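Annex B. Sample input.
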Amino acid sequence: MARLSETSKNRLRQRVEEAGGLLVFTDNYEEAVREIVDTDILFGFITPEILEKARQLKWIQAPMSSMGTPRGEYYIFPTLQESDVVLTNMSGIYSDVISTHVFAFITSFARDFPTLFRNQHDQVWGRNTRTMNLRGTTLGVVGLGGIGKAVARLGDAFGMHVVAVDPHPRDVPQFVQQIWPPEQLTQLLRVSDFVVLCLPAAPGTENLIDAEALAAMKPTAYLINIGRGITVDLDALTQALQDQAIAGVGLDVFPPALEPLPSDHPLWTMNNVIITPHCAGSATPSDRRINVFLDNFGRYLRGEPLLNRVDKMSMIRDGAGYDLPTN
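Annex B, continued. Sample output.
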């Protein structure tokens, strides 16, 4: 079970009991293994052992949107992928909050706030800053899901030219002026003034932004990552910044082995880097997860299609994905 407040537990309990069901909250792994035996619906995390014990499990509601966790574990494993159990996630609940964080990065760079904050700290009245007008610049969104669309919407509101890359674009807003498949990622990197990574830990996303990808970016461009840390080769990024191959970077996430970022990492002391401690999703209302589950619970009882259903076959980590062209 996902960790929930007492208020959330009471909402769930009332709804399930109204439907004539029995709701069990588990506080430890051993209890989860024991209770899963005759469970139809699971809201929370699952392991191969739990799935093996489940005799009648039909639907799992994952408590997150990305199938990869910040610690590096992956939600989908082979026996889950091969099973008939339906898997849904929390896609969409973070979009407005995280897109705001993205534009905190973007506007900070556009108005050169890193320099201004250093000047304030040093009590220096310095107006020699590197600023830009966002109107007319190009925003490249890699991953046009719920968060990506929200980022694109804000970019349009700022008068930016919005382009995107996505393997299976759906409901693409009219203001997205160009969308490419993953194998044409280089085109987006070449034209964008700001590249925003809105990617989950998924097939083909590990080290997607490597030395080759960074070399394709404009030397005046900025990279923003609020998805998963595995999508960026941090060594290659550090070198690109040291070589002034790109203008700067805003990072909220890091590879699991480097999160928290070690205090002696060179990124901490670079003037063109803004680091936030994996907090882009903070301030997301806690009841949104419950709302998603309860909406899907009603659909489940009525025999209707569930929202945010995950295609388990396409989410195998070693499958085809966001591959850069070889030439």
